[in-house]
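Team,

Forwarding the record for the chain on the shared tracking sheet. I've put the sequence and predicted structure together so nobody has to dig through attachments.
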Amino acid sequence: MNADGTLDGSFGSGGKVLFDVAAADDNAFAITIQPDGKIVVAGSAWNGANNDFVVARFNTNGTPDTAGFGSGTGFVATVFAAADDIARAVRLQNDGKIVLAGSANMGASFADFAVVRYNADGSLDTSFDGDGRAHADFLQVATWLRAWCCKQTVPSL
């Protein structure tokens, strides 16, 4: 976007980029800009049965970064479980690693809080929780706290 709010015609096609991760619904929920100007987008993509976390990186002109990200595709899809996994936030660490946060339905009635960390090339950072992915069921913690504060029988965590 130009400083005056108009679309930058040199970016993508007429100032816009449409990127198809899967042959179905793809959603972008968060964006950040790397120090080198590359654009990192977080969201979800339909895999035919449910949604997966997706992170994509684009060059400054809007083309997918197929040379340096996602094994030549410009994007990476990450699965937590056989249900909906949706990334809603993205941040860059000072070391260039990319962190996504969102929700993952781990088969329970409610989704868990979920975090994924990628190396700068889009590969999962296995130094983060062993496989690059972590999730937590805060509903279980909330149930424990509610029982404790109300002097009910406290369930074990």
